């Protein structure tokens, strides 16, 4: 699992998921934003990190009992203790939020361990406490029922589905107040650079729109508006 | 497209969407509240204005490319520049929030132009920024992916569906913290007047309920309770 | 309908719905958390009380007119006036939020009467006002349309479905910021006691996780960790 | 529960559910066709009869065990033995087809008893055998799992929801190859008469369309086309 | 609206919708198969023809009354009389099958007029009679309720959505027992030619698989398997 | 992967999925019937065999191209060639039927190889041809679009979800005209024996119901009815 370059991490933490989807679309990638996956609470810090994956299948009553958690080799508990610092734990919960994918104690443990965030397309429990943690956590909706009622943690470290998006271990997960985008590992550094540039141009557009300027000729960019942008972004010259 | 009388606008901005649905139901109109359409953020100003409509159909890969936006005749961009001030831009996104119906730059442009608000049954992108704009915006859920992945802006100015409700251009769209109701243009002024009256009676009911009064004989109104209400609302006489 | 022991009420108001679902799962009850039922607003007080049930069926145009509410025997109005203080009014709205299950005036009346809260798997109207009431209210999503467009109040006091969960009159409804759990009446007192104990242990776990401790051997509990917990919770001895 | 007049029964068995919905719409009744309720198999006989209702709520593991069926007072078993001959057993299964609402043995018992048919908005089990019975049975989709996994039979003889439609005991249920319509008891005889007339006119229209005639002026009917119809339907005169 | 070349029509009528989606995918078109749109009955003839579009929006009670159909300019009735022979009438019903998009009389009129078929993403009524017509008709599910309860025919001849696919007037609609695919007008002739070739190769593959041959090296094709195919398809030489 | 005992196979092929769900429920297994998974066509042979699993995740445009199928190591193609004879290929398609999980050529290859059947919770393409094969195939609904538009075959031989049910490799899949049930490998032989007994009793019940007998005291069985059944099933004695 490739590590994330610190420069790319810094760049990605400063751009929006919306900007990233546009750049990924330019490269032919249409399905990168996790559907129906939302921040547990408003105002959480942004999230950037490589994906560490965990896969749930439906529970079976004779296998999925509370005592199963006592085994340190249980894949969910293993993932909680072994997801590397700086990574994002991404859980394939089959979009089923009837049972929890995790709760405040597990999330606190991840936070203490330096994990960058957690994502499920199911639901977390103890969400009032989770909201207070200040740890980037994304899910579908709150779900108090304990996990084994509906979920069996099958394995970790495999490609998974999350929110209808393919997540390969090591793909870079970026989360903001809008949701989570998955940037394929191989192009993450390039996308990060482009995103910083695109964001700068969008800032320019915003400044112009505030002044009452029309969008045509400005957004999307034209050669003329790009030239204008270059002048706008330049630091004022000194004599 | 008929303009909205200033008195009616002032009246409508002071009443709730719940009150309006009751009055429309009395006239036999059952399907006027947009389903699954919510304010982008809590605390936005109320919205009142005639509908200016934009219609999306599904995207096709060879037609819906980012460069298409460069054409000022592109219906979405046309709508952004031509939706009249005081109107509400209403977008038929076929209840599909997988691709964005618009983002913060477009919404800021609408706000600068004096448009009264924007409504889609899909999703907006850049919603953290949109929430900060203070511009009335209603959608299904946040959606970072750029629009052309799923949507093609087909035309504007036609009757559309939005949130399972028929929207005819010029119908009066009213939005509050609960959602959006569509008041047919021809009865908007009458409904506005009735709504102010109904709201006054509801204020009376609320004052009575706070005092511990039972609802029967009070809500719904009886001739006796109406008479009592008339005395209640009267300004105290001076000698 | 059995009353709720004051001690059990005090215990239940201090524990989370997540903890309760775990304890109920241990007794073989898997389906106790109401699906897609959320607090109307963040920050409302917790809710505990026995269920008083109201059942809606679909509306029929010739029966469900606004005037029907004028009859004090109308089951919804009856329920508003007769749901006992300290109880929770639970409404089976067939998960249909297209028409309201109630609004701010009804909820205020319940609050004034000392009712402990209200739950529907449909939607409430006047939700901005409801949010300001400070009364525990749980629903699916805001719904401005007046109830009789889609709902007919059929009867009260019968076992119902709410959020896909069976609710028998007198079952203890517990609500927190996450949602609502239904605790069968017969085991509510025992569950309340166990929940206080489980919460204490979870507090211990949280204190240890904050210190950097690993979960295996701690959560789920082992005989050793339980012994440690007993020492941890003991008040410091005085000489 | 009013019995169904034999003439009305004969009339209703000869008309389509589509024709009935049109006539009910003319009287302001819009919501009379059960949604997502289909014949178990093609080619079953038509169904006409007054509704005898059975209501399911979600199962609870400690209550809904297989042994519960041994009690003759169990509402489902009571309904099977007491639904009057000529009536239709209509089951409110909350549109949940994860557990069966009944199977071939129960349906055969109903058939032997002379019951006119059975309807659920859930699913039946043993559907290959049910299809072979030749008994009118309507459901959402096949569902092998035994009922108590998801359903608890709560009571019978009350107004219910089925397929999003209000069903009052005694309402006349009419089923054909398309689905099931609920005709309110009080107007069933009048609707039956009108339906026979409307069907005759539709037969006339069909005969004309086969000859290549255009629809305007013919369908919907005009005074001229009605006069023509009256001549068309008249038996040829004899000398 | 471009006519369909007779050779292309003959080619398209002989290939499967599955083969067409593969060829369209090779050109980058992913979203061409109408979702949740099925033949009304098994065994209907295949359908090929250019799209003639009709658009429905939600009904409004004061506009959508039965008498509205008496107006020959009513868009639905206009479409029935003016959809050109050889074309396919495609209806955007917003995937709403609660009200019918048409019934047996309208479909018979289309058939008599030489129209090639009809498609809706809603439902047809009188489906037992429609099934007997032998006219290609595709929909979501049977729906007895008369159209104006839920639908208003807004206009015809515009680009629409049907089954989540963009349909431009003149696009070639092809239907078989599996469903309906939309082939963009500009590439229909080329796709038709390619489809005949692809089908011939699939016939070759099938003949080989019947003989027990493994798929690798055969399907997908390799240069060697293509050469083998060319020999296979050649008519036996005569001396 | 354990083989299936020939006796158990013969027993399972003679009982219904409904009977199996009842017996599994008695052992506490509630979630064993695949939801929304149906036979591709009526009248296919019954299916019994151990599960060989294949797992799909969402497609990514740069990975999932048609040429990927040319690699014999491609998991889907590997599964087609290596699923053992007598086994059932079970595909986790995440309940997504927008792209095909397979088509007639692959299914024919499986049939030629002696595989017992195929199951997906997505859809198959070429379903008219598949229906003609006479090979047990179960899916959600027909889906013409080629697989890589939406699916990436990730791996095989792992525990998966299919139709919301946990499928472990080697579990015994049993399919009839109603759908598919998953019998855990370890109890399959015992369940098979019990199912034959239960079916015999149901045959007895059916014979009695045909004679007009009431269900109480007969179904569910009582000690008396069991004794009567034992006499009924005994072959007539010969002198």
Notes on the structure:
The structure is a homohexamer of 239-residue chains. With 239 residues, chain A is an alpha/beta fold. In chain A, 31% of the residues lie in helices and 19% in strands. Chain A has seven helices and ten strands. In chain A, the strands form two sheets. In chain A, strands 1, 2, 3, 4, 5, 6, 9 and 10 form an eight-stranded mixed β-sheet that branches. A two-stranded antiparallel ribbon of chain A has the order 7-8. In chain A, helix 1 runs parallel beside helix 6, helix 2 packs across helix 6 and helix 6 crosses helix 7. Chain A is elongated, with a radius of gyration of 20 Å. The mean pLDDT of chain A is 95. At the A-B interface, helix 2 and helix 6 of A face helix 3, helix 4 and helix 5 of B.
Which descriptors would you attach to this protein?
homohexamer, alpha/beta
In short:
The structure is a homohexamer of 239-residue chains. By secondary structure, chain A is α/β, with parallel strands linked by helices.
List strands and helices in order, with pairings.
Six copies of one chain form a homohexamer.
Chain A: H1 6-12, H2 17-26, E1 38-39, E2 47-58, H3 75-82, E3 88-92, H4 104-112, E4 117-120, H5 127-133, E5 137-139, E6 151-156, E7 160-162, E8 165-167, E9 172-175, E10 180-183, H6 188-210, H7 223-233
Parallel strand pairs in A: 2-3, 3-4, 4-5
Antiparallel strand pairs in A: 1-5, 2-6, 2-9, 7-8, 9-10
Helix pairs in contact in A: 1-6, 2-6, 6-7
């Amino acid at each position: 699992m490739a590590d994330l370059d610190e420069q790319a991490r810094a760049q990605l933490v400063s751009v929006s998921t919306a900007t990233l989807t546009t750049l990924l679309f330019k490269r032919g990638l249409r399905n990168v934003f996790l559907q129906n996956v939302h921040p547990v609470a408003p105002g959480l810090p942004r999230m950037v990190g490589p994906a560490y994956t965990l896969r749930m299948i439906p529970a079976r009553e004779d296998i999925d009992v509370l005592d199963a958690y006592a085994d340190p080799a249980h894949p969910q508990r293993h993932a909680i203790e072994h997801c590397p610092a700086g990574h994002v734990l991404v859980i394939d919960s089959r979009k089923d939020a009837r049972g929890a994918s995790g709760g405040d104690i597990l999330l606190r443990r991840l936070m203490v361990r330096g994990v960058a965030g957690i994502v499920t397309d199911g639901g977390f429990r103890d969400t009032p406490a989770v909201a207070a943690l200040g740890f980037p956590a994304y899910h579908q909706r709150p779900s108090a029922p304990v996990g084994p009622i509906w979920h069996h943690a099958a394995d970790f470290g495999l490609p998974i589905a999350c929110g209808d998006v393919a997540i390969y271990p090591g793909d870079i997960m970026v989360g903001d107040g809008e949701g989570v985008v998955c940037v394929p590992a191989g192009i993450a550094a390039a996308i990060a650079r482009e995103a910083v540039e695109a964001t700068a141009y969008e800032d320019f557009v915003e400044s112009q729109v505030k002044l009452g300027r029309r969008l045509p000729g400005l957004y999307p960019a034209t050669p003329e508006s790009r030239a204008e942008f270059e002048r706008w972004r330049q630091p004022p010259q000194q004599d």
